[in-house]
Amino acid sequence: MGDLIVASISAYLASEILKRSNKQIAPDEALISSGLIDSFSLVDLALFVEDTYGVRIDDTELNADCFDTLDQLAALIHSRQ
User: Fold this and answer.
1) Which residue in 77, 9, 75, 71 sits closest to 42, CA to CA?
2) CA distances to 73, 80 from 13, in Å
3) What domains sit in the chain, N to C, each tagged with a CATH number?
4) In terms of Cα–Cα distance, which of 39, 59, 49, 43 is closest to 80?
5) For the stretch 33-64, what's the b/e string if a residue is b when 16 or more beta carbons lie within 10 angstroms of its beta carbon?
6) How does pLDDT run across 25-71, given as a tens digit for each residue?
7) Closest of 51, 77, 70 to residue 7, by C-alpha
8) Nearest residue to 14 (alpha-carbon basis) of 59, 70, 65
């Protein structure tokens, strides 16, 4: 299931946030600390995760410690389902 979550979030990031639908994002690629996404994009991503997976993301979790890679996001989602 983690792979499906990673693929879904990767596709969303590439098409909706980065506007480069052919961009491949590795599961362990840094999103925030590398500057790939900014704070505005992070909020959009959190809303996508909440709406798509029915989980609640606390504002205090919107940081590189919890949200920096697709693997971290998938683990967070899985822990809340």
Assistant:
1) 9
2) 12, 21
3) 2-80 (1.10.1200.10)
4) 49
5) eeebbeeebbeebbebbeeebeeebeeeebee
6) 999 999 999 999 998 999 999 999 999 999 999 989 888 888 899 99
7) 70
8) 70
